[in-house]
Amino acid sequence: MTDQERDQLIAKKLGEGMSLSDLQKLLAHEYNLPMTYLALRLLAADLPVKWKQQDPPRKTEPAKATVLDDLDADDDDGLPHGRTVVTVSKLVRPGAAMSGEVTFASGAKAEWFLDATGRLGLNPTANSARPTPDDVREFQVELQRKLSGMG
Question: What is the CA radius of gyration of the chain?
């Protein structure tokens, strides 16, 4: 399968409402094209997909909404708590295409890197808590925003 055929398939399936997770499984199992979720999401971001249709309607709960003014910034590093903060290093670590640091909403910290094939890796900081699945999802979104110039 050529890159163009792959991109057309991805755009078609996403346009039909298939989730990225399901599409990731489909590509791996039926087309022998294993991709990380982040790599697929970054690829799909460049395709003509109507993302507003893709996302299910969300119920908003005002009590859980995070407002930047309400973030707790009481720790020594000066970073706000309650949201994920991603930085991109100007010096790339050896063996990586890109790298940086992340402080998760839960307070856990890690070093992240993207290798030459687009695989994302995390190295938790010593004595740091393990990030939750929600932390990892928010990190992927924040990393994409940062790398696309929106963050």
Answer: 17
Burial of 66 (0-12, 13-18, 19+ CB in 10 A): exposed
Whether residue 49 is found in the same domain as residue 113: no
Shared domain check, 71 and 46: no
The span from the CA of 113 to the CA of 120, in Å, is 6
Whether residue 81 sits in one domain with residue 28: no
Q: What pLDDT digit, counting tens, does each position of 20-67 carry?
A: 888 889 999 999 988 888 888 888 888 887 655 555 555 544 433 332
What pLDDT score was predicted for residue 99? Answer: 87
The number of distinct structural domains making up the chain is 2
120 residue type, one letter = L
Locate tokens 């990225």: which residue?
20
Instruction: Count, in order, helices (H) and strands (E) of the chain.
Output: 5, 4
Residue range(s) defining the domain that contains residue 120: 63-147
With residue 121 as reference, give the H or E element that holds it: strand 120-124
CA 30 – CA 131 distance, rounded (Å):
32
| pTM of the entire predicted model | 0.45
DSSP 54: H
